Amino acid sequence: MDMNVEDYRSRKTVQKKVVLKKGIRKIINRILIVIVLFLVCLILIKSNTTFKNNLIKYVYEDSFKFTKLKSLYEKYFGKILSIDKITPQEQEVFSETLKYDKANIYKDGVMLTVNENYMVPTIESGIVVFMGDKEGYGSTVIIEQINGIDVWYSNIKTNDIKMYDYIEKGSLIGETNGKKLYMVFQKEGAYLNYKEYI
After folding, report:
1. pTM for this predicted structure
2. Cβ 165 vs Cβ 84: under 8 Å
């Protein structure tokens, strides 16, 4: 069947509009489901004290695992909406891998010998779940990685990061205080062997 350029273009335009409408419907459906779930939770909190007590226990008292929530969301709703398809891609200013001269076992993790005021990159993407001092480690940032492992980056001066920031792999966390970087790898309360991760 012969088709001229104008027919081809109008057919392509119709196909794009159909795909766009399906994408918008999918987004609206996901938003409506989240709103309904939120309203159901509010109703249960108001009417059921057991539900309210369990919610307080699991959200405020226990350690909240973002990776479990992400995998649960993706199981039932698909991938989380990607904003980079809507907004233009930004160029990364800092994207590095971890470099060190020497590694020694230290308490529950490892002490890495690095350059003076070494700029510390994340070894895997994740969410900042702790910022503060840890005894024997100094100033510490804990990132819950997308693979469910909590990684402590200690003896550092933090950059512009805040609690619950999502940090991409290779992004700058901060600088070391001197030539030592302490790292601890932990999953569900158990300390892991650092050699498998660095």
Report:
1. 0.59
2. no
